[in-house]
Amino acid sequence: SRLIGAPPGYVGYEEGGQLTEVVRRRPYAVILFDEIEKAHSDVFNVFLQILDDGRVTDSQGRTVSFTNTVIIMTSNVGSSYILNTDDDNTPKDLAYETIKQRVMDAARSIFRPEFMNRVDEYIVFRPLDRDQISRIVRLQVILSSLLIDTF
């Protein structure tokens, strides 16, 4: 009820839903749902309607369009496959495809098929290597020193 609003007669009915109100007021939005696998099944029912119809009706009977909204969902499903891949004998592309397939298999075991089929794109990120982490740390140190110098 927090996403689309409380039903009539309940506390907070006049406020609208946290998701629907934001999109109704600013339809050109990017919305991030972090660790979607932890969401309640009722949340997935709302997602199914949004992803299928491009709109949802809130608790006040208003239809809210999501056609101009980008929805990004993150998940840790299958992360163990990503973290346990240090096989230097396998070409990176082949290793990535294998990892992606295992992650997708894990996702299919957790998420309902009707939800999986409504998502446009799945992106499996590789872990950062030591060189990339080192460069990020160096950049952060430089940025921090610049901030300190401004005081």
Automatic annotation (TrEMBL):
Keywords: ATP-binding, Nucleotide-binding. GO terms for molecular function: ATP binding; ATP hydrolysis activity. This is Chaperone protein ClpB3 chloroplastic-like. It comes from Trifolium medium. PANTHER family: ATP-DEPENDENT CLP PROTEASE, HEAT SHOCK PROTEIN 104. One of its GO terms (cellular component) is cytoplasm. The lineage of its organism: Eukaryota, Viridiplantae, Streptophyta, Embryophyta, Tracheophyta. CDD domains: RecA-like_ClpB_Hsp104-like (cd19499). GO terms for biological process: cellular response to heat. Residues 1-121 form the ATPase AAA-type core domain.
